[in-house]
Amino acid sequence: MASTSDRFVLAGVMGWPVMHSRSPLLHNYLMKRHGLVGAYVPLAIPPEKLQGALRGLAPLGFSGCNITIPHKSHAMAVVDVVDPTAQRIGAISCVVVRPDGSLFGTNNDAFGFMQNVLQRQPGWRADAGPVAVIGAGGGARAVIYALAERGAPEIRVVNRTPERAETLARGFGSPVTPVDWSERERALEGVTLLVNTTSQGMVGHPPLDLPLDALPTTAVVSDIVYVPLETPLLAAARQRGNPTVDGLGMLLHQLRPAWQAWFSIDPEITPELRATVEATL
Ligand SMILES: NC(=O)c1ccc[n+]([C@@H]2O[C@H](COP(=O)([O-])OP(=O)(O)OC[C@H]3O[C@@H](n4cnc5c(N)ncnc54)[C@H](OP(=O)(O)O)[C@@H]3O)[C@@H](O)[C@H]2O)c1
Questions:
Q1: Could you read off the pLDDT of 82-105 as tens digits, one per residue?
Q2: What pLDDT, in 10s, does the model give residues 29-40?
Q3: Cα–Cα dist 1/41, whole Å
């Protein structure tokens, strides 16, 4: 395969819808900064065209693409190889076109989540005590995988639909414990970290219905929603003195493993990169 210096490099984000994604802004900014001649494009692909679109990446000369809603789990059945991390999470967030044209699927959401928390709250330790995760969808699976890998001794998963939390706990096994939605306030007792992985608090959605009275004021509060940057949950946490971590960094840190796999470049996550997206939120 030609090196990135003698070809027009191509990558993108595949989703449906996709035009709201901030990824093109970020990746194109980085391409310019790293002197790559190329483009990162939004690929609006309806579910019935996913297989054809993924198979088209290699002949079109793409280095790979990110995968977003609603394709993250379906793409697993299309690619040739799924790495163990993506298998355990049950979703692909990134596809890499290999030199022989085959497709490799991985998941960088867990890495992005953990790097973001560690960068913003370097004093926090996963093994220091229980953590609470609200939600049991795709984002939650990546967050729980990351927390379990990092050694969290107890991961309390609270979801509106209890069956989803139970399925997830069965799949991950210890240390994941499902907690009923009606018990969500009590699930916050003694935790070192609270993470919202539901869509609640996102622009156009109501705030997450979760009183924080039982939460220790030392607990880190993180939201994987990043539009708005400060969700009502993060605002409430900040007002009572909890350290907070917004969801934008999770998106930013996912860039690094993707770029390493696509272009053999390890881009730095700089304040300027963050400011580029923040200006659009
Ligand atoms: N920062 C990042 O890089 C990043 C990465 C991934 C996702 N995200 C964000 O995370 C959010 C969730 O994404 P996802 O892919 O995990 O979605 P998903 O798989 O559809 O899961 C949605 C979750 O939200 C819960 N939920 C929805 N409406 C609710 C309500 N009214 N009350 C309580 N819970 C409710 C669902 O509970 P039920 O099971 O009961 O329906 C489920 O647990 C989105 O806003 C997405 O943009 C951010």
A1: 999 999 999 999 999 999 999 999
A2: 999 999 999 999
A3: 21
Ligand 1 centroid, distance to 13 Cα (angstroms): 19
What b/e string do you get for 154-193 counting C-beta neighbours within 10 Å, with b at 16 or more? Answer: ebbbbbeebebbbebbeebeebbebbeeeebeebbeebbb
Q: Is 90 exposed, middle or buried (0-12, 13-18, 19+ CB in 10 A)?
A: middle
Query: Please, are residues 50 and 78 in contact by the beta-carbon 8 Å criterion?
Result: yes
The side-by-side arrangement of strands in the sheet containing 131-134 is 176-180, 155-159, 131-134, 193-196, 220-223, 244-245
84 token code pair: 């163990």
**If you measure from the C-alpha of residue 1 to the centroid of ligand 1, how many angstroms do you get, rounded to a whole number?**
39
Q: How far apart are CA 145 and CA 140, in angstroms?
A: 8
Task: Record the pTM.
Answer: 0.95
Report the run of H or E that residue 267 belongs to, with start and end.
none
CA atoms 85, 91, 94, 99: torsion sign: positive
Ligand 1 contact, 51 CB (< 6 A): no
Q: Which residue among 22, 27, 71, 72 is the active-site one?
A: 72
Q: How far apart are CA 157 and CA 136, in angstroms?
A: 7
User: Ligand 1 pocket, 137 CB below 6 A?
Assistant: yes
CB atoms within 10 A of CB 240: 11
Q: Under DSSP, is residue 102 helix (H, G, I), strand (E, B) or coil? A: coil
β 103-106/94-97 pair status:
antiparallel
Range list of H helices, the chain: 23-33, 50-60, 84-89, 109-120, 138-149, 162-172, 232-239, 248-253, 255-263, 271-278
Whose Cα sits closest to atom 44 in ligand 1?
199
